[in-house]
Amino acid sequence: MKPLGKRLKHWFLFQFITAIVSLLNFLPRNSAIALGGFLGRLSYFLIADARRKTKENLHLAFSKEIGEKQLKVIARQVFVNLGKNVADAVRLKNMKWEDVEKITEVEGLEYFDQAYRVGKGAIGFTGHLSNFELMAAYFSLRGYRLSVIGREVYDPRLDRLLVKNRESVGLKNIPSSAGVKPLLKALRSGEFLGILADQDSSRVRGIFVNFFGRPARTPVGPVLLAYKTGSPIVPMAIARIEKNRYKIIVKPPVELVFSDNREKNVTDTLQRCTDVLESIIREYPDQWLWMHDRWKSKPES
Questions:
Q1: pLDDT tens digit string along 140-152?
Q2: What is the dihedral of CA 117, 100, 103, 89, to 10 degrees?
Q3: Phi, psi angles (nearest 5°) of residue 156
């Protein structure tokens, strides 16, 4: 059993989060987004560690291209956008197709269709950019069969809320702890499988590829699944645009590399997927989760 102090902390945090979620669902959408942005800006000043890590990572990625003054502006906006995206994400259970369609446009839908209709399932290679929960909901509500891999939240009560939110729009949530079998099953049944592949996590197998010019340990699962099943890999992401709307960006499927060197094949394919995702993040640098310690792992000499 967890220590009493930690249990009390989690209880108060759960009550606070559920109260905020209820308020965001009660307010009109624009008001909820405005509140989310305010809370995000407040978090920038209150959460020192996240603010410091965001600035450090932005400096690592852009110091040769963007001045320090502008990087500070981007850092603040990262928190504001995060708050706005969370405000929209927690409202998904009350949104229907008509609501989502009204605030979303898609660039490259033909690539999504092309991969989906191959009949071998398809893998969406994406990352923590903008409202990725809404991106999955868009395709599910449009009629595609989608599964997403969800990392369990530390508090089972919050995890249930998150899973319920996804299931309310027709998504199938596969816990990251479930192993590879349900992933293979989803692909072999022709489903589209969404995978967030832009964080350094010791919980999943990763290899080093370049990300913003630096070696970053990157989940290799999407590529290994593609080689095993023949499912196309489709790099994609979502970005917030003007008037509280979103643009989903779908890129052409990444072709698998085949040679006698399997390790090099996997690395080269993962690098190309990561390059595409990086190119989208570069277009919207204030919408990615820079507070994640992306380069914490170091490659061996």
A1: 999 999 999 988 8
A2: -110
A3: -55, -30
